[in-house]
Design goal:
Helix content is about 55%, strand content about 10%. With about 950 residues, the protein is an alpha+beta fold. The radius of gyration is 34 Å and the shape is globular. The relative contact order is 0.05. Strand 12 and strand 13 form a beta hairpin.
C-alpha cells in the first residue's frame, strides 16, 4: 500500500509551523467535506478541489511575501516557499490516492515515490521557480501508479505551476545519470517527499555507490565547463552593473555549483558537513550562508515585484529593491548605489569561496591547476622562491610561514609581485592569511619605499598587471594600500553607459593598455598600438590609466578631484614632479579627446585649433589618444566601435599637423586645390568645363571636410539630379567595418530638411549616431546621416536601410505625416523616465567656431528626440551647418552648429535665451517615451 511520508526537514532554512503557511489539515477537511456533502453549487468536484488548493496556495505565498518584507530573510523565504510547495503536493497526492485512484481491493501495490530534485530538492524555491519532480516507479509500474502520476501533474498544471518532471525506475535513473551530467546533478539534490521511502533510499544509495563514487574529477570538469559557458552567456565579469542574480558570475548558481562539486567530491549529504570534511572553516561556512541569504533575498524580491522569474537586476528594478531593503542615501552615494555596492561585495565573496573550493579540489587532483596568465604559460618559476618568505605548493605561490606578514608587512605587496614575475597563481591559504593581515597595511607601509616600488612594478608590468591587480583588489590589499581606490571598490554608476563598477573599469583600462602594448590588439587598434610604442613615459600613462576615475562617487567633478588625488599618490609611488604633473593633466583631461571627437565638427578649423591649444605637445596628444581608446574600450561590450575609432583617428591626425607646425591660410588654399585635383582625377569622364563649373558649387570648407570617396559620390549624385532624376535622391552605403550605415540625401536645402530626415529615421526606428551637412552655393543640400547598424548580414542591413531611405523620400515629398508616425513608433517608455533623471541643459557658445554658434544639448534620451530638437531649431529660423549626435547610455548629448538666415552667429542675449527656452521645453513635454534599449532618433 502507498504510504505518505512527511516532507523532510529544511536543510538551511527553518520552516515556520505548517498552519501559518499552508493548512494541510484544513485543506484535507474541506476536500473531504466535498465528497461527503456533495459538490459546491455550479462546480464539478475537481473544480471545487482546485479552488480550495489555489486559495490555500495563494494564502501561503502571500504570508511568505509578507514575512520577507517584514524581516528581510531571503533564505527563510525560499525555504517557506518550498515548504508551501511540499504541503501542496502532499495535499494533491492525498486527494489523488484517496478519491481519484483509491487502492484496488486485492490488487498488489507497486513501490512508488515522489522526490524533489534540482533546486527544489535543496528545499529552496524562488516565487517564480520551476518545480522539478522525480516520480520514482518500480520496474513494471501498474496502471494505478501511472494514473496517480498523470492526475498529480494535471492538478499542478491547472494550478499554474511550472513543473519539470521525469518518470523513471531506479535503473533508468542510473542510466540517465551516467550519460547526462544535468540528470546527475539533479539526483545529487534529490529529496524524498512522499511515497515508498525504501524505494527512494535504494535509489539514492545506489546512485552514490555506482555513479558518484570515484568519478569526482569527471564531474568537476563538467560542472566547471558548464559554469564557464553560463557565465559567458550572462557576462564574464561579476561587476556588470545589471547583474544576473541567478546565472551571473558571483550569483546563486555559482554557490550552487560550489555546493554540488564539494558535495560530490567529499561525498557528503549536507552543506554543513563540509566544515568537518575540512573544506570550509566555520567562518567560511558562515560567509557561504550570508552570501546565500543575501542573494536569495534579492532574488525573491525580484520575482515578487515582477510577478515572473526575473533574474536580471535591471536599472528599473534596482531602485525599488534598494528601497525595500532599507538602503538610504549618503553623501556622494545614492541609495541604489549603496545597495549595488553591497551586491558586488557579496559577489566578490562568492568569488573568494570559489577560489577556496577550486584550490582544495586541485590538491585532491580533482581539477587541473590554475594558471595566472590567460595568454600562455611562463617559464618555470625559479627555485629561489622557496628559499625566502615564499614557497611553491601545488603549483601556486604561498607563504613559507604563518608569520610572513607579521615579520615583514612588505610581503603583503611582495606576494603579488612574485606571482606576477613568475606567472604563478596564489594559493588560497596565502590569500586567507592576507585577508586576516589587512590591518598591517597602514600608513607606515603605505609610506614604505620598497612597498611602493613593488606596487609600481606590478602596475607597470609587461606580464599580466590586470590579473594581479584584480587579485590584490579581491583580497582587499589594493583598497588598503591605495585608500582612494578603496573608496570606489564595488562602486557602480547608476546609468546605462557604464557596464562595470568603477574599480573593475579601472582594472580593465590597465589591462587594455597592457594588451595593446603586447600587440594583442594591433589589428583592432593599429594606430593606438603604433603610437604606444613611441611614447617616452609609459609609467605616467599607466598610472594615469589606473587613476583616471579614482575620484568617482564624490560631489565635485571627478576629473578635477582625480588630478588632486594623483598629485598625492604619484610622489609616494616614486614618480618625479614632471611625471606627476603629466599624470594629473591626463586625468583632468581624460574626457576631452572623446568629447571633442564625438561632439565637435572636426572639419571646422576652430575645433582643431582649440583642441591643440588644450593639448599643447605631441607627447600629450599621444598619451591622451591611447588613454582615451583604452578608457572607452573598458566601458563595456560594444561601446567602442569603428565609427568612434574613425573620429578619434581624424582628430589625432588633424591635431598632430597643427602641433607639428600648423597650416597658414596659404596652406589651406593649397589643401583645397589639392582636394579638387584629386576629385578631378576621380572623375575621368567629365570635361574640364563641367568640372570647373561643379567645383564652384562648393565652398572651401566642403573640400576640407569631405573625404575623396564622399566627394566622388556627391558629384555623381548631384549630376544625377540634373540629367536623370529630380531631387530628392538617396544613396545607401553599408559599412560593416565601421559598424554603421550611411544614408546620403541630395535635396533642395531648407531649414526643415534635417528635421524631416531625422523624423523619417525615428519613424523607421533608426538610431542616428552622426550627421554631416553640406550645402552647395546654388542651394542643394548634401546631408549624410549615419545610423547604427542593426543586422550582421549585409543583405539584411541593406533591406532595412532601403526602408529607411524610402521613408525619407516619402517624407521629403510630403506623402507621410511624420509627427503621427514618430508618435506611433515611440510608444511608451515610462520605465526609463521613472528610473533615470537627467537634468536637461542647453548652452550656446560662439568661441568654438568661426562661422557658427555651437548649441550643446544634453538630457534624457528617447526615440524621436533628434526630430524634436531639429524641428525646434528650424522653427527658430536657424540653419544647421552640422550636427553631432552622441548618446551615453540614457543621456543624449547632441551638438548643433547653427547660424541665422543671414549666415551669422546668434549673438543677441535675447535671441540666445529664446533658443534655450524653446529647446528646454522639449524635455519638459516629451513627444514620446522609450524602453531602455530602443532606437531613439
Amino acid at each position: 500500500m502507498l504510504e505518505t511520508i512527511s516532507p523532510t526537514k529544511r536543510r538551511r532554512a527553518s520552516a515556520p509551523p505548517q498552519s501559518s503557511l499552508f493548512d494541510r489539515a484544513g485543506v484535507r477537511a474541506e476536500i473531504a467535506a466535498l465528497h461527503t456533502d456533495g459538490q459546491r453549487a455550479g462546480e464539478s468536484p475537481r473544480a471545487a478541489v482546485l479552488s480550495i488548493l489555489r486559495a490555500a496556495l495563494d494564502r501561503g505565498r502571500a504570508r511568505a511575501r509578507a514575512a520577507l518584507e517584514a524581516n528581510g530573510r531571503g533564505l527563510a523565504c525560499a525555504g517557506q516557499l518550498a515548504h508551501i510547495e511540499d504541503e501542496l503536493i502532499a495535499a494533491i497526492f492525498h486527494y489523488v490516492v484517496t478519491y481519484l485512484h483509491p487502492p484496488i481491493a486485492g490488487a498488489p501495490e507497486k513501490p512508488f515515490a515522489i522526490a524533489a530534485v534540482g533546486g527544489y530538492g535543496r528545499s529552496t524555491l524562488a516565487p517564480g521557480s520551476d518545480i522539478d519532480l522525480l516520480f520514482l516507479l518500480d520496474k513494471e509500474p501498474g496502471e494505478r501508479c501511472q494514473a496517480i502520476v498523470q492526475s498529480t501533474l494535471y492538478l499542478l498544471w491547472d494550478l499554474g505551476q511550472k513543473v519539470g518532471h521525469s518518470v523513471r525506475s531506479i535503473e533508468e535513473c542510473l542510466e540517465e545519470a551516467l550519460a547526462d551530467f544535468t540528470v546527475r546533478t539533479a539526483l545529487l539534490e534529490a529529496r524524498m517527499l512522499m511515497g515508498d521511502a525504501k524505494l527512494f533510499e535504494t535509489m539514492r544509495t545506489r546512485f552514490e555507490r555506482e555513479i558518484v563514487h570515484g568519478s569526482g574529477a569527471e564531474f568537476v570538469a563538467a560542472k566547471l565547463a558548464e559554469r564557464d559557458a553560463r557565465i559567458a552567456r550572462a557576462g564574464r565579469s561579476r561587476y556588470l552593473v545589471e547583474p544576473n542574480v541567478k546565472d551571473g558570475k558571483g550569483g546563486l548558481r555559482d554557490l550552487n555549483t560550489l555546493f554540488w562539486i564539494a558535495k560530490y567530491v567529499y561525498e557528503v549529504r549536507e552543506a554543513s558537513e563540509l566544515v568537518a570534511a575540512g573544506l570550509f572553516s566555520k567562518a567560511e561556512y558562515r560567509l557561504f550562508c550570508r552570501c546565500e541569504d543575501f542573494l536569495w533575498r534579492v532574488r525573491c524580491h525580484l520575482h515578487f515585484m515582477t510577478g515572473r522569474a526575473e533574474e536580471r537586476l535591471s536599472f528599473d528594478l534596482q531602485l525599488p529593491i534598494a528601497s525595500r531593503l532599507g538602503y538610504s542615501e549618503r553623501v556622494g552615494l545614492a541609495s541604489v548605489e549603496r545597495f549595488m555596492k553591497h551586491y558586488f561585495l557579496i559577489a566578490k565573496d562568492v568569488g573568494d569561496l570559489t577560489a577556496i573550493v577550486c584550490a582544495a579540489l586541485e590538491e585532491r587532483q580533482a581539477k587541473p591547476m590554475a594558471m595566472l596568465d590567460r595568454f600562455g604559460p611562463f617559464l618555470p618559476p625559479p627555485a629561489s622562491i622557496a628559499a625566502g618568505d615564499f614557497a611553491i605548493e601545488n603549483g601556486r605561490i604561498t607563504v613559507a610561514g604563518l608569520d610572513a606578514f607579521e615579520a615583514n608587512p612588505v610581503n603583503l605587496i611582495k606576494l603579488f609581485w612574485v606571482a606576477d614575475r613568475n606567472g604563478l597563481a596564489i594559493h588560497p591559504d596565502a590569500t586567507r592569511l592576507v585577508t586576516r593581515s589587512l590591518k598591517r597595511i597602514d600608513a607606515k607601509l603605505r609610506a614604505d619605499p620598497e612597498a611602493n616600488l613593488l606596487f609600481l612594478d606590478i602596475l607597470t608590468s609587461r606580464n599580466t598587471p590586470e590579473i594581479v591587480l584584480r587579485l590584490m583588489n579581491e583580497a582587499g590589499v589594493l583598497g588598503r594600500f591605495v585608500p582612494d581606490f578603496g573608496r570606489i571598490v564595488a562602486l557602480m554608476q547608476f546609468n546605462m553607459y557604464h557596464h562595470y563598477t568603477v574599480d573593475e573599469h579601472l582594472l580593465r583600462t590597465v589591462g587594455n593598455l597592457a594588451d595593446m602594448e603586447q600587440n594583442r590588439y594591433s589589428g583592432e587598434h593599429p594606430l593606438a598600438s603604433e603610437i604606444l610604442q613611441t611614447i617616452s613615459n609609459r609609467t605616467a600613462l599607466i598610472v594615469a590609466s589606473f587613476l583616471h576615475d579614482i575620484a568617482k562617487g564624490r560631489v565635485e567633478d571627478h576629473s578635477i578631484a582625480g588630478a588632486r588625488v594623483a598629485r598625492e599618490v604619484c610622489p609616494r609611488l616614486g614618480l618625479s614632479d614632471a611625471e606627476t604633473e603629466t599624470v594629473a593633466w591626463l586625468i583632468e583631461n581624460h574626457l576631452v579627446m572623446s568629447d571633442t571627437a564625438q561632439r565637435r565638427d572636426l572639419g571646422d578649423r576652430q575645433t582643431i585649433v582649440t583642441f591643440a591649444k588644450k593639448v599643447q605637445t605631441l607627447e600629450r596628444l599621444k598619451m591622451l589618444f591611447v588613454l582615451t581608446v583604452c578608457d572607452i574600450r573598458a566601458v563595456g561590450p560594444g561601446v567602442w566601435n569603428h565609427w568612434k575609432a574613425e573620429l578619434m583617428r581624424t582628430l589625432y591626425w588633424e591635431t598632430e599637423m597643427v602641433l607639428a607646425g600648423g597650416h597658414s591660410t596659404i596652406d589651406r588654399r593649397r589643401r583645397v586645390a589639392q582636394a579638387q585635383l584629386e576629385l578631378r582625377r576621380g572623375l575621368p569622364n567629365w570635361s574640364d568645363l563641367d568640372f570647373e563649373a561643379y567645383a564652384q558649387r562648393h565652398p572651401p570648407a566642403y573640400w576640407l571636410k569631405a573625404d575623396l570617396d564622399q566627394q566622388i559620390l556627391h558629384a555623381k549624385l548631384l549630376n544625377m539630379t540634373e540629367v536623370e532624376m529630380r531631387a530628392p535622391v538617396t544613396h545607401i552605403d553599408i559599412e560593416p567595418l565601421r559598424g554603421v550605415t550611411e544614408l546620403t540625401v541630395i535635396a533642395p536645402d531648407s531649414p526643415h530638411l534635417l528635421s524631416i530626415i531625422a523624423g523619417a529615421c525615428a519613424a523607421s526606428s533608426a538610431n542616428i549616431v552622426d550627421a554631416q551637412v553640406f550645402t552647395t552655393t546654388d542651394g542643394m543640400a548634401l546631408d549624410t546621416i549615419v545610423v547604427s547598424r542593426e543586422f550582421d548580414f549585409d543583405e539584411d542591413e541593406l533591406r532595412r536601410a532601403s526602408r529607411i531611405a524610402f521613408a525619407v523620400e516619402n517624407a521629403l515629398a510630403g506623402e507621410i505625416t511624420l509627427t503621427d508616425m514618430v508618435a506611433a513608433r515611440v510608444g511608451s517608455a515610462g520605465a526609463r523616465q521613472k528610473t533615470f533623471k537627467v537634468h536637461p541643459e542647453v548652452t550656446l557658445d560662439n568661441s568654438l567656431s568661426n562661422r557658427f554658434t555651437v548649441v550643446e544639448v544634453s538630457g534624457l534620451d528617447r526615440p524621436g528626440l533628434l526630430f524634436d530638437l531639429t524641428t525646434a531649431i528650424s522653427e527658430l529660423d536657424l540653419n544647421i551647418g552640422s550636427a553631432h549626435i552622441a548618446t551615453f547610455g540614457e543621456k543624449a548629448a547632441d551638438v548643433f552648429y547653427v547660424s541665422d538666415n543671414e549666415g551669422t552667429k546668434i549673438t543677441e542675449p535675447v535671441r540666445q535665451e529664446a533658443v534655450r527656452r524653446k529647446i528646454l521645453h522639449i524635455f519638459d513635454q516629451p513627444k514620446g517615451e522609450s524602453a531602455p534599449k530602443s532606437a531613439r532618433k
